[in-house]
Amino acid sequence: MTSSQGFLGFWETTGSAKTFTHPLDPALLDAYVPRGARVLDYGCGYGRLTAELAGAGYRAVRGVDVSAALIARGKREHPELELLHCPGFPLPFGDGAFDAALLFAVLTCVPRDADQTAIVGELGRLVRPGGVLYLSDVPLQGDALNRERYARFSARYGTYGVFETPDGGVFRHHPPERLRGLVREAGFTVLKEREGSVATLDGQTAQRLQLIARRDPVPPEPVHPEPVPPEVSPGPATG
Length: 239
Known about the structure:
GO terms for molecular function: demethylmenaquinone methyltransferase activity. InterPro entries: SAM-dependent_MTases_sf. Its EC number is 2.1.1.163. This is Demethylmenaquinone methyltransferase. The protein is an alpha/beta fold. The chain has a single domain (about 5-140, about 175-215), classed as Rossmann fold. The chain is about 30% helix and about 25% strand. A seven-stranded mixed beta sheet has the order 3-2-1-4-5-9-8. A two-stranded antiparallel ribbon has the order 6-7. A hairpin with a 5-residue loop joins strand 8 (about 190-200) and strand 9. The radius of gyration is 23 Å and the shape is globular.
């Protein structure tokens, strides 16, 4: 899980003890991410999905999270995994270091536009051209509970879809086009979308949107021909 620095306190305290529930879709994963892929689980929390990936045969998997408490918990529960505490950008990997990245229920924990753009943009740097981003998150919900809290907190946060929970968390649900737009702006093309329902941290059920997107090829640098020197006309004959 991840959050901007202003909301990180929740994930260092109350949030670090939560049981995360947002599931992988094994069929979708298998269709686009081969077992030999180098995979980054960004916002890995305590390594729940990182461990699932490793158990499914993905051996080159790394998990990264901004919360020190969640990473510490992950190292206790999954000492065999590579889990890194990385509080800022850039992450300590080279351009195109990964064949695929997971971004699972991460943007819902990041209420600010600029922070969301930075996260997806960094994944655009880290996933090689032709590689895959597998994003799953929570779009705006249509039930009465969510519509009421969207309206109640919209003035405080300046964004419809941001809300607080009684235990101190700040979360965000998104118009689907917002999620698609973030992916496109980071240099990915959406290949597949899938909807479904998931359990939430507070024991409710929410609809989710999954996106599989491919990193666009890097356009070649323009080739500028060498300048041709002008022809020198012979001067007047002398003799």
